[in-house]
Amino acid sequence: MARVVVEVMPKPEILDPQGKAVAGALPRLGFTGFTGVRQGRRFELEVDGAPDEETLEQARKAATEVLSNPVIEDVVSVHWAQES
C-alpha cells in the first residue's frame, strides 16, 4: 500500500513555543550545537491503489485546504513515502 507524506511547518514569522521549549531543553540534556528548533506536523495518507500523479495532486489539495492552516502554516512537502 502506498503512502503520501505531507509536512507542515509554522510560517517563519509565527512564534513557535514548542520549538523554543525543545531548543531550551536540548543543551540541558547534553545536546549542544543547535541554534534553534521549529516544530511542525507530519501526516501520512494511505492510498488505495497504485501511486499516480492525480493522487499526489489530491494530497496537495488536501494539504492546503484541510491539513494546514494557511494563516499560520506552510505546506513544505507533499511526496510519496519511501518504503523501508
UniProtKB/TrEMBL annotation:
Which region is the signal sequence? none
EC assignment: 6.3.5.3
Has UniProt tagged this entry with the keyword Ligase?
A: yes
Which regions form coiled coils?
Answer: none
- Indicate the enzyme's highest-level EC class: ligase
Gene3D superfamilies noted in UniProt: Phosphoribosylformylglycinamidine synthase subunit PurS
What are the BP-aspect GO terms?
'de novo' IMP biosynthetic process
Identify this protein by name: Phosphoribosylformylglycinamidine synthase subunit PurS
Q: What is the lineage of its organism?
A: Bacteria, Bacillati, Actinomycetota, Actinomycetes, Micrococcales
